[in-house]
Amino acid sequence: MTDDQQGYFFTLITMLIWGSFSLIARLNAYWQIQVWDVLAMRFGIAAMILLPILWLKKDYRFLFDYRMVLLALSGSIGYCVFVYSGFFYAPVVHGVVFLNGTFPLFAALIAYLMLGQKVDRQTGIGLSIIVITLIAMTVMMSMTDGGFGVGDAMFVGSAVCWGLFSVLLRRWSFTPWQVMSGVGIWSAVLYLPVYAMFVTPQFAHAEPLHLAVQGLFHGIAVVIVATLTYAKAVEKIGLFKAGSIANLAPFIASILAVPLLGESLNPIMVCGLIGMALGALQPWRWVVR
Length: 289
Prior knowledge:
Keywords: Membrane, Transmembrane, Transmembrane helix. By secondary structure, the protein is an all-alpha fold. The chain has helices spanning 3-31, 35-57, 66-89, 92-100, 103-115, 121-142, 150-171, 176-198, 208-237, 239-246, 248-261, 267-281, 284-288.
């Protein structure tokens, strides 16, 4: 395959995993698997796979860089605690709106505060659409019985963590392999002892098949496969194309959640999806290019 064909192929794999993430994470609520157990499986399985590879490669000095610990705390542990909790309390469409939709806003804000980086005109238009959509949704949700719930707040928290993680990645020059390995291993080192001391596992209350699906998907597909395929996609076709196409996945997942999980889409969430998709994906950039 040509470089472009390889890039779109890797982007497709990334899309499938990122889109499935919202749906499979939401299944924890239906399968009654507690968030802390899912995180233990995710971090534990990823570390068990990555540690032998690092040992064989004889390339593990970067693990002792304190910046890896900060990346693990923000982009892995912090993000995962918020996002999995959010999907436990709120439907998939809420996650797409309040996580995938607000992430560009927080990333731009944190980049400005930490790096002094100003947004360009096109990004400014996208962020303005996101802010207007958030204000409109807040007003409409306050007029209904549902309102802004705990799950929605969790998604906003995860967007802040992912925005901080993205800015730190931009500031520090690590390779995709180092980021994946360092973040995966440090997440296990930091989280698993706390889990063992303070959490009572509830594996006995879940089906073995359900546990296997969650553990393998989150520990291997999300942490390892999607990281590498996205990095390769960016290398082959560039950040804008790869990012724009791959970011469509969560929005598609919110629609698939209706027939697959029996969730509903009310007019407020539909308006939110449209506004956040326009602001986050900025489709007019394709026209300009």
